[in-house]
Amino acid sequence: MKNISIAYVAPGWPLNRYPNGIVSYIENLLSGFGGDVDPYVFSNKVAIETIDKTIVDLTQFNRNLYKSLSDKVFYRLKMLQSEGILYQRNLVNTAEYIAKGINSLPFELDLIELEESFGVATKLSNMTCTPIVTRLHGPWFIIGDLSGIRSENHQIRVRKEGLGINASHGVSSPSQDVLDKVREYYDFSLPNAKVIPNPIASVPVDMRWRIELSAKPSILFIGRFDSIKGADIAINAFRIVALQNKEVELIFAGPDRGMIINGEEYHLMEYLDKFIPEISVKNRIKFLGHCTAQHVAELRKASSVTMITSRYENFPMSLLEALAAGCPVVGVATGGIKEIITDEYNGLLAEPELPESIAENLIALLSDPNKMEKVSKNAIVDSQKRFSPETVAKQTLDFYKSVIAN
After folding, report:
1. Which domains does the chain have, with CATH numbers?
2. Which burial class, exposed, middle or buried, applies to 325 when counting CB atoms under 10 A from its CB (0-12, 13-18, 19+)?
3. pLDDT digits 0-9 by tens, 351-363
């Protein structure tokens, strides 16, 4: 029986050079497939010296290929004003380069999966007979609204993404929440849609969280300083905890993208100066900026508690990685987070956008080592059971087969 050949469009490759949630999803998923699948990766940013036949560098079809499809630069708020120009250039061009990538293979590809960003699937579906699956990583009608800035082309992107989703032969979503939101917002039935979680690899024992590794109480926040990740909420929650616990520290790992509050833009230090008056609290906030994946893993292993305070999340890889490492986690009950965390079992759930609720749960964990160890053990077991690459790959392959058959 012939293997199923599947191509994935990635914003960069490999993961160690392009740390990105989509790249992580693809790499973990590929590791779970057995011998029934021949996977290929299409990308316009490839950082591998020797490219084998399974990696298709899209820049070979146009050396001036514009960065698109989830390139992190498009999520920077300052770039939003150029969206209208980028649409005209990228929507046709990117679809054309992907189609050329498909045609460059010495066989007929069975299926291609890409993200919903910018609605490339609309044009691609007119250029190839290959079935297209759109994976809902972060629809712009949700993420764009949370960014705090709406460019004049916001609705253009939202409409294009809807057209791309509807033009796809199948749609997969990491969370039920985001699939429901897409169906409601666009009024699409999407009969060939399925919820399949993101996969996460098991973490080696020596890289797992252990309570004795934390020299002093510490709370870890991994994410951008921006509105979407709720960095302001995290800082405000930490302030409440820090006013009660005079030793606890906040470890902040992630880039400072800035956020808009009441029409004014603040970066991290400006935010602290404006909204955190206590010097004793500010001095216990350790901002590390962007960290490598290895550094983040070391931080998870040694921090007392990890908190996820996003205003919205689809199915965050950062949360899956924390649970796989056995980190005690406080998350907010929004989006896919509430589908990942079972309160008091593999983590604690707080009310979204309420620093007081988050702080209450952080204090509950920090003051109860037995609870920390219990949720840590449960998190590891639950992660391996529900989100292992092998488990998710099987669900994904079954879905692909149904799309191809239809």
Report:
1. 4-199+389-405 (3.40.50.2000), 205-386 (3.40.50.2000)
2. buried
3. 999 999 999 999 9
